[in-house]
């Protein structure tokens, strides 16, 4: 009589079920949108419904979260209470009783008493997302500041002069009619020092010709 097949290792069986969940998990679109901070996110409802169906399908139970540590402080704006919670979350294999758990940090800010609930909800969301590698399109590195070279390129460049614009043609000042006509005026002796000019007196011949015919 041969011995019956020994039961599988409970931990191995648990990991095999977790592997099956990861194989079935779909891409979760970001159906939520934060109007105040202008970013999209995967909603808690979408994550909960998707993971609940997969855990039930593969015989896994989601354990209630346990808050290990909790810290309260005012937000940078001073208008809300910021809560930081260390939350332990786990799952159990219904066939073997083997469990898996880990601790994750969640934060939540609220003007009332809902900061702790937001922190726990955020911790559960990201525990499920990261434990089962659920893709949502998040890229935390996209929030980092650009590299120094990139910031230098983004600075405003000074305006360049228009090289195609032709320079205005130089203008030559034309002499006036008075400047073009030479003058026969000679300065007299008295006004030479003053720079004045006078018309010369007519000669005797011109005088007799004009008045004596």
Gist of the model:
The protein is an alpha+beta fold.
Textual characterization of the structure:
The protein is α+β, with helices and mostly antiparallel strands and 213 residues long. It has a domain at 10-138: DNA repair protein Rad52/59/22 (Enolase-like, domain 1, 2-Layer Sandwich). It is 31% helix and 20% strand. It is built from six helices and six strands. Strands 3, 4, 5 and 6 form a four-stranded antiparallel sheet that branches. The chain has a two-stranded antiparallel sheet with strand order 1-2. Strand 4 and strand 5 form a beta hairpin. The longest helix has 17 residues, at 115-131. Mean pLDDT is 77; it is low at 144-156 and 195-199.
Specify the CATH homologous superfamily of the domain at 10-138. DNA repair protein Rad52/59/22
| Order of helical and strand elements | HEEHEEEEHHHH
Tell me the fraction of residues in β-strands, as a range.
15-25%
What is the distance, rounded to the nearest whole angstrom, between the alpha carbons of the first and last residues?
Answer: 175 Å
**Which architecture name of the domain at 10-138 does CATH use?**
2-Layer Sandwich
Number of strands: 6
Number of helical runs? Answer: 6
Q: Based on Cα principal axes, name the global outline.
A: elongated
Average pLDDT number:
77
Derived structural class: alpha+beta
Assign the CATH topology of the domain at 10-138: Enolase-like, domain 1
Which secondary structure elements does this structure contain, and how are they paired or packed?
Layout lengths: L9 H15 L7 E3 L4 E3 L2 H14 L2 E3 L3 E9 L6 E13 L5 E12 L4 H17 L16 H7 L22 H4 L23 H8 L2
């Amino acid at each position: 009589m041969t011995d019956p097949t020994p039961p599988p290792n409970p931990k191995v069986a648990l990991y095999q079920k977790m592997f099956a969940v990861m194989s079935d998990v779909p891409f979760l679109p970001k159906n939520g949108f934060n109007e105040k901070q202008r970013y999209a996110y995967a909603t808690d409802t979408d994550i909960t419904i998707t993971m609940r169906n997969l855990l039930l399908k593969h015989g896994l139970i989601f354990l209630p979260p346990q808050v290990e540590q909790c810290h309260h402080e005012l937000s940078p704006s001073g208008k809300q209470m910021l809560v930081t919670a260390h939350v332990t979350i786990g799952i159990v294999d219904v066939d073997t009783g083997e469990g898996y758990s880990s601790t994750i940090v969640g934060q939540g800010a609220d003007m009332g008493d809902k900061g702790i609930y937001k922190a726990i909800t955020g911790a559960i969301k990201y525990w499920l997302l990261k434990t089962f590698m659920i893709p949502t399109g998040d890229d935390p590195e996209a929030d980092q500041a650009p590299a120094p070279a990139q910031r230098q390129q983004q600075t405003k460049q000074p305006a360049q002069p228009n090289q195609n614009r032709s320079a205005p043609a130089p203008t030559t000042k034309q002499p006036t009619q008075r400047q073009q006509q030479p003058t026969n005026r000679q300065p007299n002796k008295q006004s030479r020092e003053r720079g004045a000019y006078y018309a010369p007196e007519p000669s005797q011949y011109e005088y007799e010709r004009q008045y004596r015919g």
